[in-house]
Amino acid sequence: MKKAELVFIPAPGFSHLVSTFEFAKRLCDRDRRFSVTFLIMNSLLDPPAVSFIESQQQKQQIIKLINLPQPQPPPRHLKPYPEIYKFTHRENYKPLVKHLLSNMMLSTRSAYNSAPQIAGLVLDFFTAPMVDVGHELGLPSYLFSTSNLALLDLTIYFLTHPTHVKESDPELTLPSFVNSVPTSVLPAPVFSKEDGFVVTLKLAQKFMDMKGIIVNTFQELESYALLSFLDTKTPPVYPVGPVLGLSSSTEMVDSAQNEKIMKWLDHQPDSSVVFLCFGSMVKFGATQLREIGLGLESSGYRFLWAMGGDSINHHKDILQEGFLDRTAEKGMICRWAPQMEVLAHKAIGGFVSHCGWNSILESLWCGVPIVTWPIHAEQKLNAFKMVRELGLAVEMKSSEVNVDDLVMMADEIKEAISRVMDSDSEVRKRVQEMAENSKKAVMDGGSSHAYFARLIEDIIANI
Predict the structure, then answer these.
(1) Contacts of 162 by beta carbon, 8 Å cutoff, 6+ apart
(2) What is the pLDDT of residue 401?
(3) What is the pLDDT of residue 391?
(4) What is the pLDDT of residue 312?
(5) Which residues pair with 266 in a beta bridge?
(6) Cα Rg of the chain (Å, integer)
(7) Residue 149's Cα: distance from chain center in Å?
(8) What are the alphabetically sorted keywords of the record (predicted)?
């Protein structure tokens, strides 16, 4: 029986690591012929990612973790260009990765049939340039996209339309979208002609060099987009999602806080609580925090508000006077919450989210409708897709408005919460249908289960 080892080189961000680890574990559980090694770019890890990696090192038995040494830092003159700077920093890992892989391959050959053969590399959106190392060593590379087909399509679009875009440009016609896409929802880096746009083109070129593209989505969710990829010359696409870290969201929550949150939810009526959580990177200013508080209180709904960042340390001085006393029986504020566990609780009726792709998949899995509040990266594009393309979310404000420097006002927050908590809304019904589809997709006979099998066959066939 052929045994295959895959070497993962994930992006160092927390949200990327969570779903990539989950995919690797799912692969090993699905087919015992596979073993997995992760190469970790320690010097680029953000604080939540450091905590996650440390927890995996303590409990991980299936996946082998290797910490890469520190590479040569990028030249200082690149500092004004953050996307190029980060791209160069990752590029500087190439010699280290090549050296390590070469030694692994020599060790495998010397062991004859006792060790699995290295079957290829599994790369992230941001580590895609490592495909060059794979080519040099004769190893196929697969891209694991922790986001959706929409972002993949947008990135590849620029290969055939390599003209720098501006926010004032007309709407784009993208193959994977039914509607034309406003430039205002594109990720901010693409508007930087000498920085982000350059990196986007470089990444897109590397995507086309892959043996296959694995995507954390499922056919029933992005059926139109998937059909558009079948008609292109891109590498084969394998939608294998939803790939969810079903327990990973507890990593940043201590057990006492976790127990307190879940006990509070246990005492709330079914579908009565709106959950607010904006990821690990978002920090709102005092004005915005006060408006959220006003909107929550005036909506009249119960709420669980995970503030994140460091705002919880001084929220008593920021929120309007008497807010905590007036909402004591209806609301709970915490710093972190175990997101997946919270969304799965019967008390949760709506989710105000920054629209990270992991969060969207978790909410769909649990059948909880979203209020979209995109903040950065590709989140505006995700929100546009959920609201305009799929009808699976309520928007806080028109996605055609650049909200980077705006404050969402209390009335807007109240209105959006009221809409998402409507028990008879069409959005809620559609989300609950999609929840069933998401679970069927990964079951035996489901669409993602079948694509996963095809991916395994293709990898093994290339050994």
Answers:
(1) 201
(2) 44
(3) 96
(4) 54
(5) none
(6) 22
(7) 12
(8) Glycosyltransferase, Transferase
d(CA 280, CA 339): 11
Q: Name the token pair of 107.
A: 């060790």
pLDDT tens, 311-350?
Answer: 555 566 677 778 888 888 899 998 889 999 999 999 999 9
pLDDT, position 400: 38
Give the integer Cα–Cα distance in Å for 33 and 418: 50
pLDDT score, position 316 = 64
In single-letter form, the type of residue at position 45 comes to L
For residue 66, the model assigns a pLDDT of 94
Question: What is the per-residue pLDDT for 314?
Answer: 55
In the chain, which residues have pLDDT < 50?
248, 250, 398-404
The count of other CB atoms within 10 Å of the CB of residue 270 is 11
Three-state secondary structure of the chain = CCCEEEEEECCCCHHHHHHHHHHHHHHHHHCCCEEEEEEECHHHCCHHHHHHHHHHHHHCCCEEEEECCCCCCCCHHHCCCHHHHHHHHHHCCHHHHHHHHHHHHHHHHHCHHHCCEEEEEEECHHHHHHHHHHHHHCCCEEEEECCCHHHHHHHHHHHHCCCCCCCCCCCECCCCCCCCECHHHCCHHHHCCCCHHHHHHHHHHHHCCCCEEEECCCCCCCHHHHHHHHCCCCCCEEECCCCCCCCHHHCCCCHHHHHHHHHHHHCCCCCCEEEEECCCCCCCCHHHHHHHHHHHHHHCCEEEEECCCCHHHHHHHHCCCCHHHHCCCCEEEECCCCHHHHHCCCCEEEEEECCCHHHHHHHHHHCCCEEECCCCCCHHHHHHHHHHHCCCEEECCCCCCCCCCCCCCHHHHHHHHHHHCCCCCHHHHHHHHHHHHHHHHHCCCCHHHHHHHHHHHHHHHCC
Structure token digits, residue 260: 């307190």
Pairing label, strands 370-372, 393-395: parallel
- pLDDT at 325 (0 to 100): 84
Alpha carbons 265 and 272: distance in angstroms, whole number: 10
Pairing of strands 212-215, 393-395: unpaired
At 418, which amino acid appears? S
Tokens (6 digits) for 424: 């008879």
The structure tokens listed for 196 are 């982000």
User: Strand 273-277's sheet: what is its strand order?
Assistant: 331-334, 302-306, 273-277, 348-353, 370-372, 393-395
